Amino acid sequence: MIEFITIVDHRRKKIGLKSRADVHRDGDWHETFHCWMMDHDRLLLQLRSDTKADFPALFDITAAGHLTAGETVRDGVREIQEELGLELTFDQLTPLGVFEDVIETDTFLDREFAHTYVYAYDGEAFTLDEAEVADVVSVEITALHELIGGTQSEVETTSAISGNTRVVTKRDLVPHPTNYWEQVLAGVKAAQEERHD
């Protein structure tokens, strides 16, 4: 079944529909849902399944997906249930903003307006869709910030499923642009501070 996505202009005005493959081939702007989960001073990363077509076996946003034709941002919350097995409501999420997330490879150009949220994870059990997600790990937010900024070459992650630790380098992350990471980490830090007030 072909998945159709609404394409938008630089002001996020809807201009048409295209298949997902064509959107990524042509580099059209489109809208996505990103949900990051924080656990106190740690951020949760999804390890993408090694069978994924794009960026297999790399660490990525806790849960994310494209908004298909006719979906609103509120519908994006389904990604959390589909990928991680957590039944959250949209109102449990804290909005961080809409960030530009552009990834260019030899085979495609992914230009997203990412509606980005954070959720304060409370130890709920994950039920992973193994076709999508191989693991969920946590990493210290400060250490991740240093890895992204280049002042640290590796960080230690801990699996939220098995408790196993693993050393991760920047090459192990999906190559989101640095400004996307910076916006997310700044937003998560602000959300943390708000919770501590």
Q: How would you describe this structure to a colleague?
A:
The chain is of the alpha+beta class and 197 residues long. 21% of the residues lie in helices and 38% in strands. It has helices at residues 20-26, 78-84, 141-149, 178-196; strands spanning 4-8, 14-19, 29-39, 42-48, 59-60, 63-66, 94-104, 109-120, 133-140, 155-159, 165-168. Strand 7 and strand 8 form a beta hairpin. Helix 3 runs antiparallel to helix 4 (178-196). The longest helix is centred in the C-terminal third of the chain and has 19 residues, at 178-196. The protein is globular, with a radius of gyration of 16 Å. The relative contact order is 0.19. The mean pLDDT is 95. Residues 28-174 form the Nudix hydrolase domain. It comes from Exiguobacterium mexicanum. This is NUDIX domain-containing protein. InterPro entries: NUDIX_hydrolase-like_dom_sf, NUDIX_hydrolase_dom.
In short:
The chain is α+β, with helices and mostly antiparallel strands. It contains 4 helices and 11 strands; from the N terminus they run ββαββββαβββαββα. The protein has helices at 20-26, 78-84, 141-149, 178-196; strands spanning 4-8, 14-19, 29-39, 42-48, 59-60, 63-66, 94-104, 109-120, 133-140, 155-159, 165-168.
Report the principal-axis shape.
globular
Helix share bin: 10-25%
Mean pLDDT, to the nearest integer, reads 95
Largest sheet data: 11 strands, mixed
Strand content: 35-45%
Give the helix tally: 4
What string gives the helices and strands in order? Answer: EEHEEEEHEEEHEEH
Class derived from helix and strand content: alpha+beta
Low-confidence stretches: none
Q: Taking Cα atoms only, what radius of gyration do you get, to the nearest Å?
A: 16 Å
State the distance separating the first and last CA atoms. Answer: 48 Å
Domain Nudix hydrolase: 28-174
Protein name: NUDIX domain-containing protein
Organism: Exiguobacterium mexicanum
Pfam family, one: NUDIX
